[in-house]
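Practice problem: predict the structure.
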Amino acid sequence: MRIVFCLLLFGLFACEPAPPNQDAIQQEIKGLESDIRNNPTILDTGKALKVVDLYLQFQRLYPKDSLSPEYLFKAADVSRGTGRFEQALHLLKSFEMAYPAHPRRAVCVFLQGYIYQNDLSSFALADQAYQRFLENFPNHPLAPEARNMQAMMQIPEAELMDRFRSGKGLSQDSPDSSQTP
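Answer:
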């Protein structure tokens, strides 16, 4: 009786499909990326969602592979491009936690602020993300941009529009055009 039970149990586990290997996933990703690139005017949402799934599958199965952080970053980028802003934020935060020493970590933090500000209009969360970026990466090339974004969020929208119409931009002490030298 035990032998029959063991054989039955073994049969159940033996029928479980093996995960696809790295090369198969990479080939499928390359094919979908090529399809998407070859038709840039119309985004095939189905293919975009499929490539995100494959990026995440690869990253989940092979987290130590050098392609995993790149695929996770691309998954966030494609998610944002398809309007899945919450998913993009989740993936950027996952990248930040999973790959703390990766060079793209700074960009992931910056992009969180950008998505909160521009896609979700969550200015308090955007400010927090930009602040975290500036605290952790004060000398990053995107630091001046993060400071500008924070400054813009402090200016009322009507005043900001007036400044840009008048050519003053963010500068508060732009010279008054009515004064002569």
